[in-house]
Design a protein that fits this description.
Blueprint (H helix, E strand, L loop, with lengths): L12 H38 L10 H9 L2 H18 L5 H7 L1 H8 L8 E2 L8 H4 L16 H10 L6 H12 L6 E5 L5 H9 L4 E6 L2 H9 L9 E5 L12 E7 L7 H14 E12 L5 H13 L13 H7 L2 E8 L18 E8 L3
Parallel strand pairs: 1-4, 2-3, 2-5, 3-4, 5-6
Antiparallel strand pairs: 6-8, 7-8
Length: 365
């Protein structure tokens, strides 16, 4: 094809590759929508007709799960979940390749100067073994493997509910009527979406986000809106041993952190949270707990393996109310959470993660 007088008509190779990646990711997003809605609905219908077990949530649970796993619809549903997630991240049109293609531009963004005190990194940090043991979410290397890994994570969640600001706004809205903190600590803050939401929801509060990933806190700091920067700080630190001052925060929070830790680490986190909070301070976690419905529970437990979530079920084995009370907390509450206004229906119209809010208040001195 000849070039016109105004320049070449063919896009550059890099631009064409970027368009191909975007098209590929849109296809995967549509396929995931079909999987979560149509395939899940078909699975529910087939199980209702073809699986007949007494007491599937109790004595008949093992038989129920064996029959469901033998259903071709379940096997196809499980295959789609596993491989759509793999395709999303890996391969020449995956998210990792997309970020790599923008490496020079993204690295230049992260080289821009920041206000003093907004970001603190720890180049000597040793990552916990559980954090590096596998590629969580099928993200090659995870969010701690590369300086740009947080951009891969951000791109991965952008098209889903986790990437929507409404999720974090709905979470913070649940707390604004319960507390008025002056200092908030966001554990496992990721690339900062949750921390920014808390800073916006509590305009008189200072918000401190910490994460094991240097990439995550760096991206979080750079993407902090100018108006919020005077009230925010991001630090590379371990939530289990933060080395932050005791009795220094009115609210300690996390979003999707508990399910990414082994059981022993969750107990350590509860103790560390108690150390960090002022007497009467609140802890608020947004996370998942297994649903009571037998089919939903089976799909949720299978998700742990298919999505490389090795600790997904571990915190659900803990009696959280007893664990928090033993650490000096009172008023432990667990509530259902709807990530959007249409999320919770009975029966469910699509597959969704079983979101919960876990609240506890530290005893007064």
């Amino acid at each position: 094809m000849k070039a016109s007088a105004q320049g070449p008509t063919n896009p550059s190779r890099a631009a064409l590759a970027d368009r191909e990646r975007q098209s590929y990711q849109r296809f995967l997003a549509a396929a995931r929508g079909y999987w979560a809605n149509d395939m899940f609905a078909a699975l529910r219908r087939h199980v209702a007709v073809e699986v007949q077990v007494n007491d599937p949530a109790g004595a008949g649970r093992d038989e129920f799960e064996a029959q469901v796993k033998n259903q071709p619809t379940y096997q196809l549903f499980a295959w789609f979940e596993r491989h759509l997630q793999r395709m999303r991240y890996s391969g020449p049109r995956g998210l990792v390749a997309g970020v790599e293609a923008r490496r020079e531009h993204l690295a230049a963004e992260l080289a821009q100067p920041l206000p003093q005190g907004l970001l603190e990194l720890d180049p000597d940090m040793d990552q916990p073994a559980y954090y590096t043991a596998c590629d969580i979410h099928q993200h090659p290397g995870g969010v701690g493997a590369d300086t740009l890994a947080a951009y891969v994570y951000r791109d991965a969640v952008r098209g889903g509910v986790v990437g929507k600001s409404t999720l974090h706004e709905r979470f913070t809205k649940q707390l604004t009527s319960r507390c008025r903190p002056s200092r908030v600590l966001d554990l496992g803050c990721g690339f900062g979406r949750s921390s920014h939401a808390f800073a916006a929801a509590f305009p008189d509060a200072f918000v401190h986000g910490i994460d094991l990933s240097a990439s995550c806190v760096t991206v979080a700091a750079h993407e902090t809106p100018e108006a919020l920067r005077p009230r925010m700080r991001f630090t590379q630190a371990d939530a289990l041993a933060s080395e932050l001052p005791a009795n220094d925060f009115d609210l300690v929070t996390s979003t999707m952190l508990l399910h990414e830790m082994p059981e022993a680490a969750v107990h350590m986190l509860i103790a560390e949270t108690g150390r960090l909070l002022v007497p009467g301070g609140m802890v608020a976690h947004l996370d998942f707990l297994p649903p009571s419905d037998p089919l939903l529970r089976l799909v949720y437990e299978g998700h742990a393996e298919r999505n490389n979530e090795p600790y997904l079920l571990e915190h659900s084995r803990i009696d959280l109310a007893s664990a928090y009370k033993a650490a000096g907390f009172r008023s432990v509450e667990i509530h259902d959470f709807a990530e959007d206004e249409h999320a919770r229906t009975d029966p469910p119209h699509s597959w969704r993660l079983p979101w919960k809010i876990i609240l506890a208040v530290k005893e007064e001195a």
